[in-house]
Design a protein that fits this description.
By secondary structure, the chain is mainly α. The chain has a domain of about 100 residues. About 25% of the residues lie in helices and about 0% in strands. It has six helices and no strands.
């Protein structure tokens, strides 16, 4: 960054003697050449870094803006971090010690030491401008046109309004009641009293009593019960289905002494004409037309 000459001279006169000696002697040239060789920087980039170091020593730039200024020169963040570590080690910290002891220049040897990694705070991104929110307006109210009043022409009659039907009288809603059917009294059946048969001695009776003993209601004697015993019958023979009935076998007589006649070819009334064969003439033999044939003299 180029600054006015008057501003640089005023800051140089107000700086301590150690800073004035550091900016006036040529020891910083060797240091910047070593940075260019180590990081492979362009000569213009090295000149811009020299101006940034000058502004830092004169108090014209804040330390927080130094990293952002390096990134504007096209230097990535890892390279800028290592470059700041070298500057702290070789320029700013020895210069601070020289100011505290009252010595001269801090860059006298011009040697470049091994860089030490330094964690730096990244440059804060630019704060975007606040966006103004558009107010949300309610939808416009819809206005409906009033219905036109009826116009009565002279000499015409206005029809009477239609009668409004009277509401139907409320009829009490009758809820049908399902009556339960009467429960019939079921009388359990009366079991007949057991009848004890008289003990009969084990003997053969040749006479049958004509008087039958009394029996309960609904019972019948064994003599009045007719039992039907069917006679054995022969089942009918099965009749085969007409679809599966086979014809009766006809006996055939085969003679092994007679020689069967030889088969005769069919006899046609007219001879069969031979098929028509298309005759195609062979292609003309030209000299050199067929490499597999001998040339014609």
């Amino acid at each position: 960054m180029s600054r006015p000459q008057e501003q640089l001279l005023a800051a140089y006169d107000a700086a301590p003697k150690a800073i004035q000696d550091t900016l006036s002697d040529g020891a910083g040239i060797d240091f910047m050449v070593g940075l260019q060789t180590r990081y492979g920087l362009h000569i213009d980039t090295v000149g811009s870094i020299t101006e940034l170091i000058r502004d830092m020593l004169l108090g014209l730039m804040k330390p927080d803006d130094f990293i952002g200024a390096l990134q504007t020169l096209g230097i990535d963040t890892p390279t800028a971090t290592r470059l700041v570590a070298d500057l702290n080690k070789e320029v700013f910290m020895p210069l601070r010690d020289a100011i505290m002891t009252g010595g001269g220049s801090a860059m006298t040897d011009g040697s470049v030491r091994v860089p030490i990694s330094l964690t730096t705070v990244p440059v804060a991104a630019a704060t975007p401008a606040p966006q103004q929110s558009t107010p949300v307006l309610p939808p416009p109210a819809l206005e409906y046109a009033a219905a036109p009043s009826p116009v009565t022409l002279p000499g015409s009659s206005v029809p009477a309004p239609m009668p409004v039907p009277a509401p139907a009288p409320e009829v009490a809603r009758q809820i049908p009641v399902i009556s339960e059917p009467p429960v019939a009294e079921v009388t359990p059946p009366i079991a007949p009293a057991p009848v004890s048969a008289p003990a009969v001695p084990l003997q053969v009776q040749h006479t049958v009593s004509t008087v039958q003993p009394a029996s309960p209601i609904g019972w019948q004697s064994a003599a009045s019960v007719h039992v039907y015993i069917p006679h054995p019958q022969t089942p009918p023979a099965p009749v085969p289905h007409p679809a599966i009935m086979q014809p009766e076998a006809v006996p055939q007589t085969v003679s092994y002494t007679e020689v069967p006649p030889a088969p005769q070819p069919p006899v046609f009334s007219a001879p069969i004409p031979p098929p028509q064969i298309a005759t195609v003439p062979p292609p003309s033999r030209l000299p050199g037309s067929d490499p597999y044939r001998e040339p014609i003299a």
